[in-house]
Amino acid sequence: MTPVAWHELSAEEALRRLGSAARGLEPAEAARRLGEHGRNVFRAVRAVSAWTILLAQLRSVMVVLLVAAGAVALASGDPLDAIAIGAVLLLNVAIGFFTEFRAHRAMEALLGLEVSRARVIRGGALQDVDARELVPGDVIEVEAGQRIPADARLLETAELRVVEAPLTGEPAPVDKAADGVLAAGVPVAERVTMVYKATTAVAGRGRAVVVATGMRTEVGRIGALAGSVVHAPTPLERRLDALGRRLALVALAVAVAVVALGMLHGEPLARLLQTGIALAVAAVPEGLPAVATITMAVGMRRMARRQALIRRLPAVETLGSATIICSDKTGTLTAGEMTATVVQLPDREITVSGVGYAPVGEFREGGRPVDPARDACLALALRIGALANRSGITDSRGTWSAIGDPTEAALLTLARKGGLDREQLLAEWPEAGEVPFTSRRLLMATFHRTPAGLQACVKGAPRRVLDLSDRVLDGGGSRSLGPEEREHLLALNAELASRGLRVIALATTPVRAIGEGELHGLTFVGFVGLTDPAAAGVTETIDAFRGAGIRTVMLTGDQRLTAQSVARELGLIGPQDEAVEGAELEALADSELGDRIASTAAFSRVSPEAKLRIVAAYQGRGEIVAMLGDGVNDAPALRKADLGVAMGVRGTDLAKEAADLVLADDRFATVAAAVEEGRIIFDNIRKFVFYLFSCNLGEILVLFGAALAGLPAPLLPLQILWLNLLTDTFPALALAVEPGEPDVMRQPPRDPRAALLSRRMVGATVGYGLAIAAASLAAFGWGLARATPAHASTLAFVTLAFAQILHLGNARAEAPVLSPARVLRNRWAVAMALLAAALQVAAMHVPVLARTLQITALDGREWAAVVGLAAMPAVLGQALKAIKAGRVPAAR
């Protein structure tokens, strides 16, 4: 059934459609409808079970390879190999399970938006009821300070103003009116005849008829939309999965080749099975899933220290891949706090510094400081703004916030910056009465007793205040306001508005009595320009993103002119860029939208569905999208994006639960820190993948080379598993904390379609694998010539172990690790290499380990040969890096 557009109906027609009346529903009818419509609560999507999360960990190609290797080992009578492989498998699954367990609760956060009580008229009597029992057709009353309990069509209002930021993202209160019928297609932010669940009344009162409850409300609909979006695999997950598939094919091809060679040489089947197991173990870098997880966990802790909290572990790396950052405006790119930045007096402009409601800032005219205590005109403007006011500002442990209307709170902050406190002003000029703001009146006035008599302080819409003014402030007095000067003041208002400022006019006049009829013949004092200013560090962060090849795009519920002004101030809009309004987006097909967004830097008046389409359109162009937001209206796009980023302080619970990353300090600059960490994490993952694969390729080539030469297998499966768990894993873990390269934020984003290892790195992997294998086979051949095959196997095993440990220096950085300073830049790498070497030596001298691994002790000459051969790949690698870096002259 098509939902009713209640804003398109009059109040009387809405009551008729709902079968209700001004006296509300009868109690019996309300009870019947409660059974029909259900309780007025958000229904959380059924949580993903622990078993589902556990099974998801077993779908990895790496896990499948480990299971296959363990099964073959068990079937061929090698229980020790099977047990060791099983232990590695359990470790990897356990780490993945516990890091993912808490990541599947997006819709549950809707419960945090529930309203507990509601004032409802039933049977003509006003009652206080459980808000969960509201039904369509109930007539409710709302008043200042109350959260709206359900979606409702207004029946009557008295200066009602509602903050709809959780729904629309905009902090300015909206004036509500019951009269009139709105046109079709009016966006939620402009539906003045409606109030919506989870928004808050900040002034006045109203009466309304409930039109939707629970999941049928606007907030419930958005929450359902967010819950329907399924997380796609992260770029890293896709790359690791592709790598695992290629690895499986390589392992299978090598195993078939070795078995074929063995059969040609007449090898017994049992020996071929043993070699096949060894190859399977050698092909699978058992430590890769665990090291990848631990690397991301280390990065997660580093990000947390920089106020970026990760909720979904694989997302740690995703920010480093981002090519587009789509950001909500209010509270993300801007401070989310109305701030008075300009006081425009009739003949001069004074700028005001400071952001938000903290009364810290200074006044300047033409770059020179201005003292309001010595400037009568400025002091009068500040006094009017503070007295014609019904809001407040409060300080909680150094954090200032607004109480009531954010615009009025900004005027109080402005006065406090000038040394004027409202309470002290009221002591001097006690208040005697008020004319409240209404959408018809377009102004408010307070009346004060002064030594000279009653004085009215007026603030309101510029044109309305000017229409009531016939004089203008002039130094210590006033002069007549003529037609030309009136036009000049209107032009000043238009110029301030063109900067994206919200303009309030201020005026005053002596009066004989209290009342609206006295508000004429006003003396115009000036304008105050207010804005939601750019948050601290945002412009610098956008510039840093631009240098890193990342494009920032703004999505806002604000109007186009405001969006353009803010985007221009932030440096988002260039000569080739444009701002697009939500109504235009809705008229575009998906293919047309994909073309349009290439030149769009700001989207205005966008709905939650439009934000979702924009993110999907960028993804359709192959971009990796990070979405920043804080409201309920951002939740679907946060879920859809490759990485959702929510504000931790101002963000709604639904936004935080839909996100992968939460900014604990709400600072846009923290995103840049997270991007930097994400890039470092990816680089480190690539380093240890390169390290593991070149080591494992060396193991495969040792076995393959021996089979090709008709020699016995140099390594046993358990020996290879020992190498993979010890010499691979410990050094690889050290790469997880390798410091980032100095130019990490000056590099362009990685191609989302690129493999984890570039062609150059694949070539280096093969080259180092060949070098490591050559050193090990040389040791094996030397051992066969002078000792038993078992002792030759020990020589090959120990040489391979130390070659892999020393190879760590080749994996750490592009530049050679030659100086002590560079060696010690990552002390963990040195410590892990020494630990791996010590454990390898211990394995040869601890009887139980030596028997299990089937290795024997070496004499001094053998140790010299082993160390010399093992050092060759490392020395070769450092020499090549030095030549590339120009540290030493290349050989001619």
Brief summary of the model shown:
The chain has 892 residues and is of the alpha+beta class. It has 33 helices and 28 strands.
Which features does this protein show?
892 residues; alpha+beta; eleven-stranded mixed beta sheet; eight-stranded mixed beta sheet; 33 helices; 28 strands; 48% helix; elongated; disordered C terminus
Tell me about this structure.
The protein is an alpha+beta fold and 892 residues long. It has 33 helices and 28 strands. The strands form four sheets. Strands 10, 11, 12, 13, 16, 17, 18, 19, 20, 21 and 22 form an eleven-stranded mixed β-sheet that branches. An eight-stranded mixed β-sheet has the order 8-28-27-26-9-23-25-24, sandwiched between helices. Strands 1, 2, 3, 4, 5, 6 and 7 form a seven-stranded antiparallel β-sheet that branches. Strand 26, helix 23 and strand 27 form a beta-alpha-beta unit. Helix 28 (789-806) packs parallel to helix 33. The longest helix has 41 residues, at 668-708. The N and C termini lie far apart (82 Å).
Task: Give me the secondary-structure topology.
Layout: H1 11-17, H2 27-37, H3 50-57, H4 61-75, H5 79-100, E1 117-122, E2 125-130, E3 139-143, E4 151-163, H6 165-168, E5 174-175, E6 194-195, E7 200-212, H7 218-228, H8 235-264, H9 269-283, H10 287-305, E8 308-310, H11 315-318, E9 324-328, H12 329-333, E10 339-345, E11 348-352, E12 363-365, E13 368-370, H13 376-387, E14 392-396, E15 399-403, H14 406-417, H15 422-428, E16 431-435, E17 443-450, E18 453-460, H16 462-467, E19 469-474, E20 477-480, H17 483-498, E21 502-510, E22 522-531, H18 538-547, E23 551-555, H19 560-570, E24 578-581, H20 582-586, H21 590-596, E25 600-604, H22 608-620, E26 625-629, H23 635-640, E27 643-647, H24 653-658, E28 661-663, H25 668-708, H26 717-735, H27 759-786, H28 789-806, H29 808-812, H30 820-823, H31 827-845, H32 847-853, H33 860-885
Parallel strand pairs: 9-23, 9-26, 19-22, 23-25, 24-25, 26-27, 27-28
Antiparallel strand pairs: 1-2, 1-3, 3-7, 4-5, 4-6, 4-7, 8-28, 10-11, 10-22, 11-12, 12-13, 14-15, 16-17, 17-18, 18-21, 19-20, 21-22
